[in-house]
Amino acid sequence: MFDLLQSILDGVMFGATYALIGIGFTLVFGVMHKINMAYAAASVGGAYGGLLVLVAFKGAPAWAVFLGACLAGGILGYVVYLACFHFIPLGSPLATLMSTVGMLLLIDEVIVHSTDGMPQNYPAMFDDVMLQVGELSIRGDLLLIFGASVACMAALLALLYRTRLGLATRAVSQQPVAAQLCGIRVAQVNIATFVITGVLGGLAGALIGASVGALSPLLTVPLTVKGLIVTVIGGLGSIPGAIIAGLLVGGFENLFQQFRGVTERDLYVMLLLFVFLVFRPGGIFASGAGRD
Amino acid sequence: MDFYYGLAQIIGVHTLLGLSAYILLLTGQVSLAQAGFFAIGAYVAGMLTVLTGWPLLPALAVGGLVGAAVACAVGFPALRVRGLMLVIATLAFGEGVRLFFFNFDYQIARGDLRVGPLGGEGFRQIRYFPENGWTTLEVMLFIWAIVATVMAVLWWFDRSRYGAVLRAVGEDEVAAQSVGINLTAVKVSAMTIGGAIAGIGGGLYAHYTTHIEHTSFNILVATFALAYPIVGGLASVFGTLAAVVFVQGFLIEGLRFLGDWRNLLFGALIVLAMNLRPHGLIDARVLARLARAFGGGRRA
Amino acid sequence: MKTLATAVAAALAAMALGLPSGATAQERTVKIAGFGAKSGVVRSFGVNSEAAMLAAAEDINKAGGIKLGDGAKGKVVVEFLDDRCTAEEGISVIRRIASADWLVAVGPTCSNVAEPLFGILQKKVGDAGDSGLQMPVFTDVAIKGGLAKISEWAFRNVPSEATMYSSLFNHVRTEFPQVKTIYGGVEEDFAHSRASWYAVMKDRANANGLQVLGESKWLLNDTNFATQVREMKKANPDAIAIAAHPFTTCGVLKEMQRQGVKPKLLIGLTSSSSLETLEGCAKQAEGMIIPTSFAPVNAQATAAAKSTAKFKGNADLHSMAAWENMFILKGVMESENVLAKPDSVQADRRKIRDGLAKLKTTDGLLGTTRRTADREAEKPYVFVRAKNGEWTVYHNPL
User: Fold this and answer.
1) Which of A222, A264, B243, C366 is at 20 to 30 A from B295, Cα to Cα?
2) Residues on chain C touching A137 (C-beta within 8 angstroms)
């Protein structure tokens, strides 16, 4: 019995990493109504960028690397925006989808070429801390990731609802033409969205790298898939939805693994997604009336 | 020349993969599930020729039929979701099919060898072509006969009412419904046809690579299936063909002389292509110009 | 219209341009093609194999080249093609190589490319009804068991895990009497790792009196190993064997450190005895013992490693197999009187194939390698152990 609980708890804690990635996916979707397939790749890329801090200052503390990852993530976010969204007309969602796929491949290859594909050791904070709650143990660093997700959510919600930029962002997401008529520069808002989600992505990538202990280009595609699933289950455009969905997916993953083994685990995660799509297509927190 | 025949084979099969996504894109359904139907066709056709000794054409036909049947079953729930949710749902389905084959064992003894799919290890020794003495040229011609037939059928659709109905649904569902078009019938039929095309393509894939495993049908393949019609343009079937030639012929094989840079340029050129030609390599304007150059008259 | 036409013409030109051209009539070059993965997570394998082949070619040319059948000297030319670890591209690459005047191909890196690739080769030499490709392929890296028997044109110079782990567990039985139980960790979705645990390690451990308590499974890009390591902890084995590649191996080792799982003996997968594991988790891998078919234990091994490093490659069991292949091919070409003339390409390929098939032993960097009847190799091996961030030779049964 405790085994099962521990397993679920492990999964839920690891789900915090999915939550972090999901927030970025859902935010870009919420604002621009477009999927950024390159998001997870840019996040991992940002994490790699954080490693440059170690190259420059040997022995730098983990948080410095994370900060570097945030910076690199923000820059990458801007690059992705420029390459995939700025020049392509808004009426071509397929074109932006494909260009973000191209960007995903490009970022992957750049990572592979600069590291020859080898896993890179990643510094971690609290990775040796294990909290004991009775019979159950919780990983300290995953708790940190969970805390970071909540903090990011709070910061983003504050940004969206308490600042002018947030107001402009919500305006653009609801009615881009009307927003322009009110004098809001759509391009600026979009750039801000990408840079902010980029910073968030860089942090997500860094924390994921820290929790795994190593960074590898193997991370990009599974994170993309998980991020997309989490976004859908949580509700497209809903940030708290992304967090809860992330934890949910993490917990179910481990539950399925416990019962059906690792080879069938992902099959059941897909089924879970289908269940949500059938019974609650809007996701846990269905966002306001959005088209598509 | 063998190399060029081999490349033409690859282009042919990938064109089938692309066309299966193309017909769905016409109705506005962005599907990442085509790799799943591709896989189903591959395993079914492979098992028929290897385990039961069927000749190739019937095996391919059955592969296509099974692909179509599964696609039809998927088509109905797919109606409930639209836009980008459909993308993710079909992605999940495709992954589900891949995981199914990852866990699928069906081996029988053939003399002292065991043949058939073996889960993670894959399905080896699908040697219909070499065992029956097919040369690379013959295989290529066979594949292209099938591709040409499929393209002809789709081209004919485009000139007929069905094509207009497909595109109408893709452009504006509400308007299409208001003129009496049955959305369900159109979308599900498109999904079924797409599944059939992908199934046949998969069967061919299994036979010319002689070994298939679950990783041969991963998300990247699904993404490429979608990439071909998008990069090529939805105006006509030739768009998809052009995109396959562009990706397989130019980006993958043609740029080999760049050595290491080839892989880096791959993603970059796709991004560039989408920025320069967001409606595809062969979009409506290019098609009109081509039609004027070749046909003279206006398209129906 | 014009721009479209020029674009199409340019694309076609580029496609044709990419095809390697034939050699000029004056200089006699012996063209050996290398191919493997230079993209994705396995890029380091391709980079290292290419470096090893280029280094070996340089050494051979410096020593006078290859003595050809009519007394002339042939200069070795190597070109390495990237197959991106996908079956279709691998097949395309071998067709490209076969269509040009390369005499033999060394590769591929990935087992999932090797299997389909061997499948399109002619199964039995001289079978007129078999339209398979007639091109000798001499594999350096792809290690999944039993592939060479798919075709008589396929040869491999990869270590036999059955032999090495047999010896390792024998060694464990005698040198580690306190180790009585063993638990496994296996990458389920990678054919090589999977086969290595179930067919080799588990079997050999049982045969040497160790009690196998079970195994934990994961997938090759998994990142969360809490459940699996918990199972290991519960089983409390004396030894743990991890049949996985560096990324997940490091993930599991770090989780083991986190949960305080410290077995008396740690055993790894052959492929993981490379730089990758140390880059990812040198500290946690400390003490891991792996059997491998290369370590710089003698003068020629060290020299080979140095030459390869000049071409920016790392010397490990995979790349050094490519090095060995070059010298084996040199020997075969000389003994079979290969002519390396523009019109003798197919005849030369047949000679090389027959020559490789005839070999009973070859020279390996660690000693003599025995060649088996189904075209595989039994290579000499050593056991290495991770110590202070390096793979040091722990036991040399040579």
Assistant:
1) B243
2) 259
> For chain A, what's the residue count?
292
CB-count exposure of residue C160 (10 Å: 0-12, 13-18, 19+): buried
Instruction: Find the helix or strand (DSSP H, E) in which B7 lies.
Output: helix B2-26
Residues 6+ apart with CB under 8 A from A88: A95, A96, A99, B274, B275, B278
How many angstroms separate the CA atoms of B204 and B128, rounded?
11
What is the number of domains present in chain A? Answer: 1
The string of pLDDT tens digits covering residues C258-285 is 888 999 999 999 888 888 888 888 888 9
Interatomic CA distance for residues C63 and C72, integer angstroms:
14
Residue owning tokens 């966002």: A287
Distance CA B280, CA C261 (A): 56
Q: Is A277–B81 a contact, with Cβ atoms under 8 angstroms apart?
A: yes
The CATH number of the domain holding residue A178 is 1.10.3470
Record: contact B3-C19, CB cut-off 8 A = yes
CA dist C169 and C181 (Å) reads 12
Listed by number, the residues of chain A in 181-210 with a beta carbon closer than 8 Å to a beta carbon of chain B are none
**252-281 of A, contacting B, C-beta below 8 A:** 263-264, 266-267, 270-271, 273-274, 277-278, 281
pLDDT digits (tens, 9 = 90+) for B190-243: 999 999 999 999 999 999 988 998 988 998 899 999 999 999 988 889 999 999
Q: For residue A130, which of A144, A118, A120 has the smallest C-alpha distance? A: A144
- Alpha carbon B231 to chain centroid, angstroms: 14
Q: Which residue has the tokens 């299997």?
A: C115
- Cα separation, C20 vs C79, in Å, equals 9
pTM: 0.89
With residue B194 as reference, give the H or E element that holds it: helix B183-209
- B273 to chain A: which residues are within 8 Å by CB? 102
Distance CA A55, CA A159 (A): 33
- Asked if ipTM goes beyond 0.90, one says no
